[in-house]
Amino acid sequence: MSKSWVLITPEDTCAWKLKEAHLGEEEPTTEQLQMYVGGMIEAVPRSWLMDGLHIMYVNEEGVWDKLPHNQLATQLLDMGGPLVGTAVVQWDSKYNTIKGWTMSEEE
User: What percent of the chain is modeled with pLDDT above 90?
Assistant: First the structure.
């Protein structure tokens, strides 16, 4: 299964209808990640992420900067949160479509 990078903004409400473009399969540089989240990056603990997500980065000081709540990114967690600001996520490419979110584990 290939992996792709996506941006999840506070305005996004549906995982397969993200407002921002998908970033592709190549890992963004630190400078790109900082630009996407608007500051210093922080990795969300892997143990907090739901299956199919591999890495998630957020703004390290987003809470103190009073960035807007990111409901969709928060919903992608098994624990932890809430998340604020834009999240940069690496997930299984199947999640780029509605079919990937709705198919059962057996499919």
Answer: 61
- The CA distance from 86 to 20, in Å, is 10
Take residue 67 and report the two structure tokens written for it. 């960035």
Sheet with strand 87-92: strands edge to edge: 3-8, 87-92, 53-59, 41-43
Separation between Cα atoms, residue 98 and residue 67, nearest integer Å: 28
Provide the β-strand partners of residue 55. Answer: 90
- Of the candidates 15, 14, 13, the one whose C-alpha atom is nearest the C-alpha of residue 89 is 15
Is the pTM higher than 0.90? The answer reads: no
Of 10, 20, 22, the residue nearest 73 (C-alpha): 10
Antiparallel, parallel or unpaired: β 41-43 and 3-8: unpaired
